[in-house]
Design goal:
Length: about 325
């Protein structure tokens, strides 16, 4: 960690000068910019390739920074922040006066979280202000979970990449809209609906038409470049047989049939937290395997797999055929 700590003053100087610093969080790597600097925000959106109307998450060093960013924070949101920060939960709250449209996509709300990675927290403490950070990939692509992924995606467009090793959670934070009377989950993640219900004392709703825009919920998001097909476990063998003429990249809970020739076969973790941690690196590996088609065996449908199933459905553009 020592070389990284030596990089901290440089990272802070870059942020203060309006530059971009990629840094690790417990979920995925973020592409950070000074949230209070409009020119830095403009550069962030340009490098990310993201439409200006799509809001970004402001990362905070401590829960008490919240008062600079949000107003009218409901009691249940305070409870969620106290229970899960630092951690993989983003709260969408009414924005405080002076919070720029550049962060919120012009909406009256702002997304905030305190990340649980020692390097992210050290950076935030040294910088002393909010750091706006989308995932450090180009818009719509698979999020990076290592420093090498960030460099592959963004190359020279980022001024510094802080390397904190592979991310522990591996999929993006749970986003909860806490700007209304009751919590609404806008994006599932490791903090589950039952975790939220336990702490908030009310079951969270799923999004409705009136919820704020959350483009991470676009159907075709988090997608590899190769076409990806999500296959129900019951259909797996039939689909594999039918597609075996193609150069396949596959991720399954089983081992490869000895007769099958394929570009790559990944035996996925059977345990949901580990599956999530390895998911984006696995999708990148399949994408790079030279395959024509990625086949992924769908995980179980129960609660611990909600975040993973959400990302897989988006990687497959929401398309989950039921028959081979
Ligand atoms: O785990 C994470 O959340 C990672 C790490 C870096 O913190 N960040 C991340 O950022 O996934 P990004 O920009 O890739 O996704 C943030 C999502 C987007 O879908 C955005 O629309 C939504 O959060 N969001 C941010 N502010 C919002 C707001 N005010 N209202 C509704 N959605 C918001
Ligand atoms: Mg993203």
């Amino acid at each position: 960690m020592s070389d990284v700590q030596e990089n901290l003053p440089q990272a802070v100087a870059i942020l203060r000068g309006g530059g971009l610093v990629a840094f690790p969080t417990e979920t995925v790597y973020g592409l950070g910019a000074d949230a209070a600097n409009p020119a830095a925000m403009a550069r962030l959106y340009a490098v990310k390739g993201r439409p200006r109307a799509h809001p970004v998450i402001v990362h905070l060093g401590r829960i008490d920074w919240l008062r600079d960013w949000a107003r009218d924070v409901p009691e249940f949101a305070h409870k969620l922040a106290l229970a899960f920060w630092p951690g993989p939960l983003t709260l969408v709250l009414k924005r405080a006066e002076g919070v720029a449209d550049a962060l919120t996509g012009g909406q009256d709300t702002v997304g905030v979280r305190v990340p649980a990675h020692p390097l992210a927290l050290a950076l935030l403490a040294a910088f002393g202000g909010g750091i706006a950070a989308p995932s450090a990939n180009r818009f719509g692509r698979v999020s990076p979970t290592t420093a090498a992924h960030v460099r592959e995606d963004l190359g020279g467009d980022v001024d510094l990449v802080l390397d904190g090793g592979p991310c522990a959670v591996g999929i993006e934070s749970t986003i909860v809209d806490a700007s209304g009377a009751a919590p609404v989950i806008l994006r599932p993640g490791q903090v589950s609906a039952s975790d939220i219900e336990r702490v908030a004392g009310v079951a969270p709703a799923m999004p409705s038409g009136s919820a704020p825009r959350s483009p991470g919920t676009l159907a075709a998001h988090y997608a590899p470049r190769r076409p990806l097909r999500l296959v129900r476990a019951a259909d797996w063998e039939a689909v594999l047989r039918r597609q075996s003429g193609k150069r396949l990249g596959t991720m399954s809970f089983r081992s490869a049939p000895p007769s099958l020739r394929c570009a790559d076969w990944i035996r996925a973790a059977a345990e949901p937290e580990r599956y999530a941690r390895e998911l984006y690196a696995n999708l990148r590996r399949l994408d790079a395997s030279g395959c024509e088609l990625i086949l992924v065996e769908a995980p179980p449908g129960d609660a611990p797999w909600t975040g993973v199933n959400d990302r897989l459905a988006r990687a497959a553009s929401g398309d989950m055929p039921s028959a081979p």
